[in-house]
Specification:
Length: 433
Amino acid sequence: MRTPVPRRRATAYGAFTATGTALASRGVALRLVAVSTGIAVGLTVVPTTAQAAIVAGRVVQKPSPSADDVAKSKDNVRKKAEAVGRAKAQLAQADGEQERLAVAVEAAVERYNGEQVKLERSQQAYQAAQQRVAEAQQRYADTQRQLASFAADAYRQNTGYSPWAAVIAGEGGPQGFMDRAGMVEVLARRRTDIIKKVEASRIVANVFRRQAAQAYRDQQTATRQAADAKSGAQKLLVQQKAVVVRINGQKKQLEQSLGTARARAADLARQRAAALEAADAARARRSTSGAVGLATGSGMGGVAARAALKWLGTPYSWGGGTSSGPSYGIEQGADIHGFDCSGLALYAWNKAGVRLDHWTGTQWTSGPHVPLGQLRSGDLVFFARNKADPDTIHHVGIYIGRGRMVEAPYTGSSVRVSSIWRGDLIGATRPSG
């Protein structure tokens, strides 16, 4: 933000007031002389007030609203803009918090989804284990029935209720019996092996079933925890959204208030600029020195100055401004309809019939350079980081007289009337086309 340098010239108002005071004092002196000499002297003295001054025996009203009124309105705009800035900072912080919470919610949801997948797989494994246990138990039961049937048959053969006695004495004789006895032993061993395998399967199945049951319980716990995390994050997100809505509402109110203040400030500035133009015109008409009028001049510069003054209060837009008027800019100015400094100069001088580029570099060389003591309305005044190097020019304004200019200053501000007397003033140019 640039800090204005104090004006180098005393205002005409101060001169007017001093003149009025001197005349008033002189009038009092004349009345004293008249009383002392007995001569009746009718001399009317008009008191000076905050809004009036005496010039050449005439009462001249000061431009209204006053400079203090305009300054106060601008200060009010500045304070409201700061309030909006604070609200925007709070909103940005709330937005960041909302984004963080949204990420937390997404993470919780994904963790919950993962736990659900694990739970489903665990349930499938548990069901498979249960199926294997059931199958093993079925095989075990079948084997038990087969063994029971075999034992019953063997028992019956040994008690004589079957042809076993005949077998011993029959075909094959004792050797045949021994062979058949060996077969019984083989079958018994096979039964024992089957029983062991079934028992082992049952033991393994029971172990797996216990593991699956524990995994199932663990997954249920994890799922509840993920669901709780999701629910908590969602509650926080709802709260944060409410904060964002509240801050948005506050920001909207502040911006509306700021807009009203800006409109008021712009209106006061326009009124004051108009009043100053009228005062300048009145002085120019009364002047016998042939001084050139200010923003009301009839030349091309006067046309350019008046054209620029019409856009007081228009937002600054980086890259904004064409020969037709304000426009959307670029980068930060892409969503702002307005002017930047060289765009405003381009527009103003186009109204005077002079084409300028949208660049301070060529605007600086668009005409002869003018001594600061000979400035006229419409002259372009330039500002540079290094006053010895025109290549460092970074800003331009349109001179309107009495040390003032119309400018589009910087992002976040609006077209305004300002003093030219700043530390970075490098010089002036009078565009000639």
